[in-house]
Structures are given as structure tokens and as C-alpha cells.
């Protein structure tokens, strides 16, 4: 969905981790743009730098060099410094993680409402939004339950609602189906697709699986901290095979 309205522009991003005895270059000159309403998959093997990238996009970690321009954010230099980092995250980002990260002592509806409670939004508005989201993911009957009474797929649906409740410009999802079986993964990916299409929700999703990447509009292939290529999905049954083929080619070519 390239209408040239950019949500995010990433320029020459690098990240070097300094370990006791050696440096790890986790990101090397990463450049890309995310367009409004785009569903972007970042695909790479374990250790290729995907989580590092997502953590930096969400201002949970600082890059070594390079820039992120986020539409609507005036002071781009400061997004990695507190208290701006927290504000940036609350205003702009909804996170979905592999392991759900729900608060186990709170009910489903309380977990979903939490980001708005933290923003001091009035109760009636919160209630309305929670109801709407519970309907969207078909969990209305489960609203008074606690996360541990739910299946993994249901817990991830709660996490998606929590990410959506502030209507953030961007959803960041790190291996959101990594703990789920095939059928459950499919239903979670259908929800991502649905919110992308119906709400024009911009999404960056990280995965190592071609099948998962095939739900996106566009795939960036990551290898050893670099973007090696990209693939524009055709939205037909050939996508998965083409993604798999390209990924294999990249892994087999010299660095
Ligand atoms: N906090 C850290 N300190 C040192 N090295 C790290 C840290 N986090 C990640 N790395 C290293 O950076 C590289 C990329 O990791 P990561 O972004 O987690 O990859 P992925 O999510 O694709 O599996 C790996 O070599 C990993 O060991
Ligand atoms: Mg990771």
C-alpha cells in the first residue's frame, strides 16, 4: 500500500553490542521506510538482528548510530532518552511479544484497559474501547477471566487488544506466533491482516518463518544485521513459496 505517506524512516541504523571480550555488530547500515497502512514483515534467522531492530524502533534500546524519523515526532534525537522514550512509546507504539507479557493478576478487560488507565482516560471511553476490541477478537465472554485461564492464542488476542487500545500509529510485533501451534498462528495472523486492512493499521512484524511473512504486504529479508532484499507480496498462493525461495537464496549466498 504505497501511497508515499511515510510513518517511519530508518536511516543508516547501526547497533554494536560490546561484550566482555568482543564486539557484536547486530545492525549494519539498516535503511528502510514504512508507509502508512503498510504491513511489513522483517524476516531473518535467529541472531540476524530482528529483535534489536524492533527494540530500537520502539525506543526500548538505543542505536549506536543512525536515525529514526517517526512521523509526528518533532524531536527525533531525543526519543531514546528518558522521559521522552516513555512518552514516545505510549503515544506511538503498540507492542506484541512472543510470550504475551500479560499481567496475570488482572482480568482480560483490565489488561486491555491498562494503557488508557495509565493515560488517565475517562472510564466511559475506556469501557467503550474495551468492548469494541473484545468483540473484534471474539473474547467478550472471557472479559472477567485471568490470563492463565486462557489458551495461548486467546492470551495473544488479549495482547493485541492491549496494543490497539491507544490507536497507536504503529504496531510492533516480535515473533507473535512463536509460541503458538499452526492453526492458532493462522488465526492470530488473520487478526493482524484484518486490523491492517480495516483500520489501516501500520504494522512491523518480525519472524523467521516464510509462512508468517506471507501475511504481510512486503517482506524485508534480514541477514547478519543487514537488509539483503525485499519482496512485495502479490497476495496470492505463490507468496509463501517465493519468500521461501528468496530467503534460501540469501542464506546460501556469501556474506
Ligand atoms: N543485550 C545484548 N548484548 C550483547 N549482544 C546482544 C544483545 N542482544 C542481542 N545481542 C546479539 O546481537 C545479535 C542479534 O540479536 P537479536 O537482535 O536478538 O536477533 P534475532 O531477534 O534476529 O534473533 C546476536 O548476535 C545476539 O547475540
Ligand atoms: Mg529475536
Automatic annotation (TrEMBL):
<dbReference type="GO" id="GO:0022857">
    <property type="term" value="F:transmembrane transporter activity"/>
</dbReference>
<keyword id="KW-0547">Nucleotide-binding</keyword>
<keyword id="KW-0813">Transport</keyword>
<dbReference type="InterPro" id="IPR027417">
    <property type="entry name" value="P-loop_NTPase"/>
</dbReference>
<dbReference type="Pfam" id="PF00005">
    <property type="entry name" value="ABC_tran"/>
</dbReference>
<keyword id="KW-0067">ATP-binding</keyword>
<feature type="domain" description="ABC transporter">
    <location>
        <begin position="8"/>
        <end position="249"/>
    </location>
</feature>
<dbReference type="InterPro" id="IPR003439">
    <property type="entry name" value="ABC_transporter-like_ATP-bd"/>
</dbReference>
<comment type="similarity">
    <text>Belongs to the ABC transporter superfamily.</text>
</comment>
<protein>
    <submittedName>
        <fullName>ABC transporter ATP-binding protein</fullName>
    </submittedName>
</protein>
<dbReference type="GO" id="GO:0005524">
    <property type="term" value="F:ATP binding"/>
</dbReference>
<dbReference type="GO" id="GO:0016887">
    <property type="term" value="F:ATP hydrolysis activity"/>
</dbReference>
<dbReference type="InterPro" id="IPR017871">
    <property type="entry name" value="ABC_transporter-like_CS"/>
</dbReference>
<dbReference type="InterPro" id="IPR003593">
    <property type="entry name" value="AAA+_ATPase"/>
</dbReference>
<dbReference type="GO" id="GO:0098796">
    <property type="term" value="C:membrane protein complex"/>
</dbReference>
<dbReference type="InterPro" id="IPR017911">
    <property type="entry name" value="MacB-like_ATP-bd"/>
</dbReference>
Amino acid at each position: 500500500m504505497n501511497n508515499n505517506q511515510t510513518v517511519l524512516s530508518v536511516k543508516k541504523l547501526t547497533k554494536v553490542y560490546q561484550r566482555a571480550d568482543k564486539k557484536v555488530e547486530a545492525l549494519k547500515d539498516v535503511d528502510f521506510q514504512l508507509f502508512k497502512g503498510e504491513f511489513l514483515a522483517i524476516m531473518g534467522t535467529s541472531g540476524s538482528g530482528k529483535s534489536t531492530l524492533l527494540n530500537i524502533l520502539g525506543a526500548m534500546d538505543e542505536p549506536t548510530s543512525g536515525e529514526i524519523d517517526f512521523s509526528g515526532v518533532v524531536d527525533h534525537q531525543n526519543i531514546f532518552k528518558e522521559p521522552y522514550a516513555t512518552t514516545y512509546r505510549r503515544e506511538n507504539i503498540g507492542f506484541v511479544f512472543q510470550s504475551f507479557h500479560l499481567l496475570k493478576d488482572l482480568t482480560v478487560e483490565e489488561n486491555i484497559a491498562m494503557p488508557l488507565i495509565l493515560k488517565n482516560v475517562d472510564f466511559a471511553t475506556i469501557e467503550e474501547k474495551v468492548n469494541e476490541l473484545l468483540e473484534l477478537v471474539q473474547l467478550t465472554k472471557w472479559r472477567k477471566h485471568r490470563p492463565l485461564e486462557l489458551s495461548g492464542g486467546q492470551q495473544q488476542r488479549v495482547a493485541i487488544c492491549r496494543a490497539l487500545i491507544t490507536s497507536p500509529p504503529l504496531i510492533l510485533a516480535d515473533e507473535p506466533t512463536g509460541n503458538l501451534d499452526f492453526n492458532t498462528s493462522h488465526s492470530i495472523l488473520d487478526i493482524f491482516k484484518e486490523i491492517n486492512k480495516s483500520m489501516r493499521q501500520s504494522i512491523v512484524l518480525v519472524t523467521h518463518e516464510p509462512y508468517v511473512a506471507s501475511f504481510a504486504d512486503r517482506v524485508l529479508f534480514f541477514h547478519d544485521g543487514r537488509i539483503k532484499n525485499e519482496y512485495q507480496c502479490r497476495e496470492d498462493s505463490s507468496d509463501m513459496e517465493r519468500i521461501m525461495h528468496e530467503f534460501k537464496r540469501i542464506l546460501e549466498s556469501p556474506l
